[in-house]
């Protein structure tokens, strides 16, 4: 499933042309992976998919997409900064995040 398209990511950062498409896609893939890992639960495209019995799943929504785009935007703007994380995106995801049991 493509949660955020290349076109959406480029529009978010006002990137014209396709010279950076490889870099943009790499950063976008990393941003999506970061958010999925942070959520720590299966992500479903529709409520119908979730209704199939996964009590730990979450349905993809505007908050999650926004967080993915925020992480992408941060990584695009600050490519050399590999230590810091965009905390605002994690704050958005916190209400959907599943914490591991003890």
From TrEMBL:
Q: Which Pfam families match?
A: Phage_connect_1 (PF05135)
Please give the start and end residues of each transmembrane region.
none
Report the source organism: Simonsiella muelleri ATCC 29453
Report what the protein is called: Phage gp6-like head-tail connector protein
């Amino acid at each position: 499933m493509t949660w955020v398209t290349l076109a959406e990511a480029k529009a978010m950062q006002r990137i014209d042309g396709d010279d950076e498409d490889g870099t943009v896609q790499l950063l976008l893939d990393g941003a999506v992976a970061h958010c999925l890992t942070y959520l720590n639960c299966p992500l479903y495209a529709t409520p119908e998919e979730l209704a199939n019995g996964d009590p730990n799943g979450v349905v993809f929504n505007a908050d999650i997409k926004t967080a993915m785009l925020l992480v992408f935007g941060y990584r695009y703007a600050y490519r050399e900064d590999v230590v810091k994380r965009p905390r605002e995106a994690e704050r958005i995801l916190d209400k959907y995040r599943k914490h591991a049991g003890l």
